[in-house]
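fyi for ur records
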Amino acid sequence: KQGLSGDIRRLTLWSAIDGMPFASCRDVKPVAGQQQQPALAIYQPTEIPFGVLQPSPNVGDSRAYSIVANAGEIFLYRAADGSGMRMEDGSGRLLAMVMGTEPRFMRVGPQVDAGLITLALLGIDLLEHDAGMMQQ
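which gave:
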């Protein structure tokens, strides 16, 4: 099991109107003696843990991620050509789609938290950037 996150916020999603945070992400601390892939803990604005964004252990494809939360899992799959991504809940319901890389276009389904989807996409960018830096 992973430890809770570090003290440094790596990402914060802020309100454009009043400057209040919607959510934030911090690195997940590795458990001593266990090798694990980098992950980000997602926190609610009240600093209560919401879930963990990590490479998906349930999919053999390294281009898949998941958000594991008390309310269930969200799966994020990158297209084979890298040009987009789709997000689904545990029952396979499409939550959102991202098309393109520069610029990106995001479509979010009804009753889906667009902030969470945005934070997850930025978090994946950060995890992949960190992984690339570690390989150099």
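The beta strands are 5-14, 21-28, 40-43, 49-55, 64-69, 72-78, 84-89, 94-99, 105-108. thats all i got for now
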